[in-house]
Specification:
This protein starts with 17 loop residues before the first strand and ends with a helix. It contains 4 helices and 14 strands. The chain is an alpha+beta fold. The protein has 2 domains: 48 residues, no CATH class; 156 residues, no CATH class. A 6-stranded antiparallel β-sheet has the order 6-7-10-11-12-14, sandwiched between helices. A 3-stranded antiparallel β-sheet has the order 1-2-5, with no helix packed on it.
Length: 234
């Protein structure tokens, strides 16, 4: 196999800046930018003392690499949109749920239930979901609750399991992510997370809701405000 790449014939390539990153494997804590300095001995360029990396330089770098987030119209259901994180909400509605045949919820499989309004988010192809008590677009100070579903962690992260997650995330395919969540099979709670405050627990809650029209939001567990959860993750 032969691969060829062309980066332009008439534009010379010069070393303009050097960027050094400091921190650990899991987190970058400091970035500095350095100017190249000619070596008086004729060797490779050296870097000067440098200074902290600025937001203005990062924006310049992104534009230069052609990686700038494209301008687009945001539909009303989108809450947060950035190069690495997107969040949206979906109103209360009735949906079917599917459960694995070898789990305690198998008697709930394939029945239709009322669901609360939900906030979905995706970061690095990881889906997150929370619930809302009010059936309207949340504001930054709106209360957000733990999504009352198996396969959801306390921080809102979803265990993908059998979920056929889309390969990409964009404004146009957000509904594909929420559809994939409900099209997968719930298998069990994650790490003993309490999913709701119903006196009969998760199974009792959903058994009582089969065929009903409205989800009882009084059984939701509060997690924080929309700003706290979405801006922290984004």
């Amino acid at each position: 196999m032969y691969c060829d790449a062309e980066y332009g014939r008439s534009a010379p390539m010069h070393l303009l800046h050097g960027i050094l990153l400091y921190g650990s494997e899991n987190k970058i804590r400091l970035a500095t930018i350095h100017q190249p300095v000619n070596d008086p001995q004729g060797g490779p360029p050296m870097l000067d003392a440098g200074e902290p990396l600025t937001r203005e330089f990062l924006e310049h770098l992104v534009r230069g690499l052609g990686s700038e987030l494209p301008a687009c119209f945001l539909p009303p259901h989108v809450l947060v949109y950035s190069a690495s994180f997107v969040a949206w909400w979906e109103p209360a509605q009735r949906r079917p749920m599917f459960f694995a045949s070898d789990c305690d919820g198998k008697s709930l499989d394939r029945r239709v239930y009322p669901h609360p309004p939900l906030v979905f988010a995706v970061r690095s192809r990881r889906l997150m979901v929370w619930a809302l008590a009010e059936n309207r677009r949340p504001e930054p100070d709106s209360l957000v609750y733990l999504a009352p579903y198996w396969n959801v962690y306390a921080d809102g992260g979803v265990c993908h399991g059998s979920m056929q997650a889309p390969e990409t995330v964009s404004i146009k395919n957000l509904s594909h992510w929420s559809h994939a969540f409900f099209a997968s099979r719930f298998t069990g709670s994650n790490q003993g997370t309490q999913q709701c405050t119903h006196p009969e627990g998760f199974l009792g809650l959903w058994r009582s809701l089969a065929g009903k029209a409205t989800f009882p939001v009084e059984y939701l567990i509060r997690k924080g405000t929309a700003h706290e959860l979405l801006c922290r993750n984004g």
